[in-house]
Amino acid sequence: MHLGKVMTVFGTRPEAIKMAPVIKELKKVKDINTVVAVTAQHRDMLDQVLQLFEIKPDYDLNLMEEGQDLYSITTGVIDGMKDIIAKEEPDLVLVHGDTTTTFAAALAAFYQKIPVGHVEAGLRTHYRYSPFPEEMNRTLTGKLAELHFAPTDKAKENLLAEATALFKIWVTGNTVIDALLETVRPEYSFSGDLASINFNNRLLLVTTHRRENWGNKMRNIYEALIDLVNEFPDVEVVFPVHKNPVVKDVAEEMLGGRERFHLIDPLDYEPFANLMNASYLVLTDSGGMQEEAPSLGKPVLVLRDTTERPEALQAGTVKLVGTNKDMIYKEARLLLTDAKEYQKMARAINPYGDGKAAVRIVDIIKDFLYVRIGAQ
Ligand code: UD1
Ligand code: UDP
Residue ranges of the domains in the chain? Predict the structure, then answer.
């Protein structure tokens, strides 16, 4: 029996990584017609993931522009998705996470009264401007969505506290763990940009991109890194730099050409995930890496003042260190000098999933479509 049509919409690197396992599972169900639309809010960073997971979009809005702002992304997604949704008439639109693509695509679906399923629903910092605009994007998407795929119990609690109906929430785990477990291999060998790294040294894996860290905060982070590399001769920083010129220009100005600093282009997910597995410590403002690194037993210093992912924080494998130079230096130094402190944080924990989140999500979608047919 034909169950219906599911349209997935996403636009950035992390959404693609986390939606890929869901698309793979959806495509296994012959009674569901799966349509993939990408906004390409990211271009090259998105394409890297599409290629790895062999996803061929049915629609591509090709929205990215250098220096795009929130208004142009939002209106571009709403305008672009309007006709695609009208033409395809999906029974469900699936979005992921907290980007502007997520919120605008959910709104575009809502305007045509198409039900929205929200993957990675319910994460909250409870600060409207931190992370910005992600906290509001995710909260508003939660209001628009009819199916909420919460990765953890905590995310479910957040949704219940906002009066989301219990029967519309499922705790599924996070699909990032599905993608990670499929990608990390102990025997992985590094090539290309990574061949020049001395893997006998201790690697600090660094990424930064958050809007609220643009400017001086980012500079503080980079200054702390310089001090750490100067102090520890066996430490190397590997920094795949986000394509955003706001990040790239400052990173190159401050860190480019320095000894034991590897400033490289964004890596494909496969080498990146394996590099995380080979690193000593992760310093990042990324959301997804706060989920991945704990699962690999790698301590994370989170370069932010808030996190919507408190589970690893509570487990003690992640620390929020903010963007104060002295604080970052002090906390990283502790982990480089005190083996006991390091071991306390370097424990593999998996509060975010068991690698089967996508299977659960697709089972729930099947039930939803089945009931929908019955109701028509
Ligand atoms: C976006 C999301 C953020 C998410 C992040 C993941 C919004 C508002 N922001 O932030 O939630 O955490 O992606 O990385 O939804 N660029 C390229 N090539 C690419 C990607 C980006 O050149 O493949 C450059 C472009 O100049 C672009 C700029 O980066 O204008 C910013 O991209 P944008 O998606 O607006 O913001 P991000 O900081 O990437
Ligand atoms: N990542 C990647 N290549 C890189 C850097 C990150 O594939 O060079 C992956 C990383 O493993 C994680 C995701 O991209 O799954 C995180 O993306 P980002 O930090 O840009 O976004 P966020 O998670 O903060 O929304």
Answer: 4-174+354-375, 192-346
Establish whether domains 4-174+354-375 and 192-346 are of one fold: yes
- pLDDT digit string, tens, across residues 116-157: 999 999 999 999 999 999 999 999 999 999 999 999 999 999
Give the torsion through C-alpha atoms of 358, 149, 136, 66, to 10 deg: 20
pLDDT tens-digit map of 213-246: 999 999 999 999 999 999 999 999 999 999 999 9
| Ranges 20-24, 82-86, 188-192: which has the least confidence | 188-192
For atom 19 of ligand 2, the residue with the nearest CA is 286
Residues in the ligand 1 pocket, defined by CB under 6 Å = 12-14, 41-46, 64-68, 70, 73, 98-100, 133-134, 209, 243-245
CATH architecture type of domain 4-174+354-375: 3-Layer(aba) Sandwich (3.40)
User: Is there an atom of ligand 2 within 6 Å of 266 CB?
Assistant: yes
Q: Report pTM.
A: 0.98
CA distances from 99 to 13, 33, 134, 197, 210 (A): 10, 25, 6, 33, 12
Q: Name the superfamily (CATH) of residues 192-346.
A: Glycogen Phosphorylase B; (3.40.50.2000)
Active site residues: 98, 120, 134, 209, 211, 242
Give the atom of ligand 1 at the shortest distance from the alpha carbon of 45.
Answer: 23
Per-residue model confidence (pLDDT) at position 196: 87
